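How it folds
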Amino acid sequence: MKFPIAIEPATENTAWGVVVPDLPGCFSAGDSAEDAFTNAVEAIEAHCEILAEDGDDIPVPRSIAQWQADPEFAGWIWALVDVDISRFEGRAEKINITLPRRLLAKIDSYAKAHGETRSGFLAEAARAAMR
């Protein structure tokens, strides 16, 4: 899942700051921009793990454009970090669904072209639809 992060550049006295607005209370920092990105992924994973342990849903991230419009983040730099949250969503379950043959072929072709599986594509499509 791709999470928007708001980045506050370092100054002489501060490190690079990172806030994950879709996960209230999730923030991180780093001595360099690269460290800030790495630490942001670790912070998101830790935050999602706590949510899962508490039985809470992991919020579906909003778009960067939606967050950029928030005056609280005026002047911040924005980026996306990709975090595999599948391990926090619970055990995989096999299901039986019915789809039109041509649609299924298009799904399989698209997923293959993008290095995904059918299940991964359908899961991500469901998450996107629920945003």
User: Anything to note?
Assistant: The radius of gyration is 17 Å. The chain has a mean pLDDT of 92. The first strand starts at residue 2 and ends at 8. The helical segments are 33-53, 64-68, 101-113, 118-129.
